[in-house]
UniProtKB/TrEMBL annotation:
Name of the molecule in the record: Glycosyltransferase family 2 protein
Hydrolase found in the keyword field: no
Subcellular location field: Membrane
Keyword terms of this UniProt record: Glycosyltransferase, Membrane, Transferase, Transmembrane, Transmembrane helix
Record domain GtrA/DPMS transmembrane: where: 250-367
Record-linked InterPro entries: DPM1-like, Glyco_trans_2-like, GtrA_DPMS_TM, Nucleotide-diphossugar_trans
MF terms in GO: dolichyl-phosphate beta-D-mannosyltransferase activity
Native species: Neokomagataea tanensis
Any single GO BP term: glycolipid biosynthetic process
Lineage: Bacteria, Pseudomonadati, Pseudomonadota, Alphaproteobacteria, Acetobacterales
One Gene Ontology cellular component: membrane
Amino acid sequence: MPFPHTALLPAQLAIVVPCYNEVENVPMLVSALDQALAGIAWEVVFVDDNSPDGTASCAAQLAQSDPRIRVVKRIGRRGLSSAVIEGILASTAPYTAVMDGDLQHDEQILPEMLRRLKDGAELVVASRHIEGGDNSGLANRWRHVLSDTGIRAAQYVMPHRISDPMSGFFAIRRSTFDSLLPKLSGAGFKILLDLAMSAPVGTRIEEVPFVFRPRQAGESKLDVQVLVQFAFMLMDKVTRGRLPTRFLAFALVGLIGVLVNVSVLHVSKIAGLNFSQSQFLGTYAAMLTNFFLNNRITYHDKRLKGRRMWWGLALFVVTCSVGALANIGIARMALHDWGHGHWSRSSAAGAVMSVVWNYAVSSTLVWR
């Protein structure tokens, strides 16, 4: 691809594009940026989470003939927010824009966003919810509900008035980003909210309208899981990190495991099994539930797949069996102390002990 002389100048604007399975969109995005940013010294940093479709390889091939294209390929790490942070740190440009790699963000407004930063704004948000903006490009009504729910929740707790805190399209001064970096959680999918809630009152934030376009290729990543992680990140920011995001997620999964344990216990009791047998079945049902939910939600950025998932499950079961023995022992002690009429409370006491043990094992051995 031929490129202008500005490609040989230090980048004034870096466009960070976190991506996963966007191989079809990479060439089209580069071409769109080339047209939209004519006369501006820019570079694009694709941060790819080891996409199986060859996204990183496609971007690297384009980079061989265009010095404005850079690639960061992450192995063993996942998550949009952390990808954006790594992408910004990989550039020395004084201004950075963040946009998705699916062509739904309008690259034509990048020059206006850059102009606003140069005129004094510290953070410029591309909004679908101010005059001139539109979010009709969301795939269906369900995705509209997810997006709108997240926006209302964020606006309720955040210190700044932003019409579209769920936007993944924004631009920021590098100096502002550096000042906020120590406060960022880096978790989940909504880095803009992380930045906005970390920014002190008085930070100059401006919005520009944009029309959210329909996706041309690939699949949307917006689902219930994104909203759950979004909620955890909100709690993390509201509590100022006193309750870390991963702990909150693990605690919720552990609570679900306790409910599974108690439910299996009652079914087993009806089936005629004694307490120890029922507690054994309930414990392992909870263990399996905890593993798969944690792999999907709590440790999404370290999610085990394929053969690694089954090895991880085996390691989880073996090591957590120690916790299971403690679970059963504590439950029996509680049953003895509280009397034979309190199976549920006895079972829950043992399950809580198991959750604590499982957290230690999960963090150090399974999802290292």
